[in-house]
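Bench notes, afternoon.
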Amino acid sequence: MAKRTGRNEKQGSNQKYSNVIQNYDDNDDDVRLNNTAGNRMSELLDHLMTKRASTRERALSSIIEALSNKFQHEFCENNYFTVLQRCMNSMKQRCSTEKSLASRAIGLLALTVGRGHQGHEIFENSLPQFSDRLKVKSGSEVLKASSIMDALAIITFVGAEHSGETEGSMQVFWQFIHSISSFKVSENKDSVVVLATGISAWSFLLSTLEGWILNYNHWQGAIYYFLGLLKGDDDSVRNAACEALATIIEKNCFEKFVKESTDHSILEGDTRSIGFPSREELKNEIIKQINSLTGDDENSCKKDVSSLKFLKNGFSPVTTRIGGFELKVSSWSQLVQLNFLKRFLGNGFATHVKENQLLLELFGRKPIRTDNLTNVPKFEEVKVRVFMPEVRKESSAQRILNSSNSALNKGKTKLLEKQRALSQGMKLGHYAIGEGSEET
């Protein structure tokens, strides 16, 4: 059970809402909410205490939508323990849908409150239960794990205070990945996707660590394992393995991911004696196998292609644009983090990237526009007052209006230039990532 130690928890923050839905009928499918965000969230938390599972699931879905599409830092900071406790209660229910929704809500909660004692408390209280849910005892349990792994990766990313805690969560994923093989998930397409999710979560956390700080004993044989996955038939697993191998190479500590072995069959044509393969041998083999997957096929997966380009040529910094801001991606690890966060937040990524301080610190966000282009008028006109004596009015009117140097035409020219500048500014309201651009 989570221990209540939050220093900023306002004990009276929810008391005024305690009777809001006191007479709520579990059989009533219409959930009536107040208009304000705080009242709405408080009501949703109350719905999590009802006995009907469908009511709790609808409330969790609404909480997820609220935390994704609107950055509610103040409410989460003041009520994080209440949100955490009630979502953890839903994690204990039998229904897999409710567990998945609750885990995602906790992940969004952590991302909203950010790093610090609150984020760490969410991590500490969540890890045991999340780890327990990822101890697979049957093949049917495998399919429930994707959202739990995504959420645990986010919670660790935000709340872990040192590398030991991060590697602890990575080990949870590593054990899950290997336990799946005993249930023959390769025969089930949905289960294979879960395997890819686990590898992606592992790579995401690896991308947040420096290579020199990694434990020598935790990841021995990881390179051989991922190379073996490249020979499989499933695209999602191969893509995740490519991403993991590229991240390992960027860390520049191969000795922590290989083990001395007599079995070098993974390195084709190898005739060396027992010992560690060299860094260049492994890198060349990885490039060779990824290259064999992509070849000249224009429909090859983007991750395969981008991984191969990074392995061959290194990483070229890119600028990601969203709304009125630029995010700088200066390394392969940052690209892995950006892609994972984008996938986790979905449509809410645009909101968080504008308001979430954690993402500001991560990507060095800065405004694109230097002038005020936010208030764009729908209509503008040019008016020119010209003094013309009555005696010259008829003879001069046409010359004044038609002349290219007239005040009227000069005004029109300035208006067109302003509209062109506004149009160019508005075109920056999307972001392009990697080799191309992607609309959101």
